[in-house]
Predict the structure.
Amino acid sequence: MARRYIKKHYPWSLRNWVQLAVFVLTIAIGIQFYYYVIQVSGIGDVTIPRPPGVEGFLPIGSLMAWKHFLFTGHWDMVHPAGMVIIGFAILISWLLRKTFCGWFCPVGTLSEWLWRLGQRMFGRNFQFPKWLDIPLRSLKYILMAFFVYFAVVVASISYLKDFQETRYWIVSDIKMMYFFTEMSIGALIILLLLAVGSLFVRNFWCRYLCPYGALMGLFSMISPTRVVRDEEKCSNCGLCTKVCPAYLPVDEKPFIQSAECTGCMNCTAICPINETMTMQTVGTKKNFWTLKSMSIAVTGSFVFLVVLARIFGVWESTITIEQIREIFPLIPYLNHT
């Protein structure tokens, strides 16, 4: 049985404002894409531009495109923004721990809102005992290994080249949208179960099942940034551990290198003793990272990469409206094989 995890102090911080902004942007992109698809499916003029940001929901294909690029130098111009977004996620996870998950990912944001709602509703969250928690956490790495193995390791360069030219890949963003707008009963039940689980257990999906987060966690393991605790100054109040959404024993370690750390900085923000619990990067000052500087680094780096991608012409897809309209009637029958 899961043991109770009593409600503690979780103030709304600058990080939460960043999460909210990205979440609202994601919803806006989804709405714009929905009406874009409606227009594309007709015969009239298309007045709503396709939002490239929708390609952030095509991580597997974007990983395949990255392998093809690294071996051939050819940037996928079918869904180029997807490569930029997953490249950003990997880069920021390596540099600043898993901040993509803790600051940027809209699914992670929704998951956090749910467990905070669960705290308000039930007065607590729950934590599985270690003998169950550890095997459950391994599931996301198994899923990650499965996708990476078949999408990146097994796939040959010639296969990847052919895949980028398939009709399936051209309209994969539309097929992804239909997963949500025409959701099956089975998929709806699974999503509802995940939502209910997230009410009781902090970041249920992210902690146990998200292969994307698992990949980001591996890169964060070799990050030059980590939470550091000054053992001489520490009063052992335990507040840092109590507010850690990943249940990490922050008050017991001189530093945190875990793949579960999302760089949320809850622990550094709540520490009552100045410069005792800090986020540090090799080569920077001890007190360099604050919620403000981290928010600027995370959002600024994303904006910079998008602007750079626009300058080099690798943000907007080169697929035309005519190509999509030609394929559109076949969408229900297309698959990735």
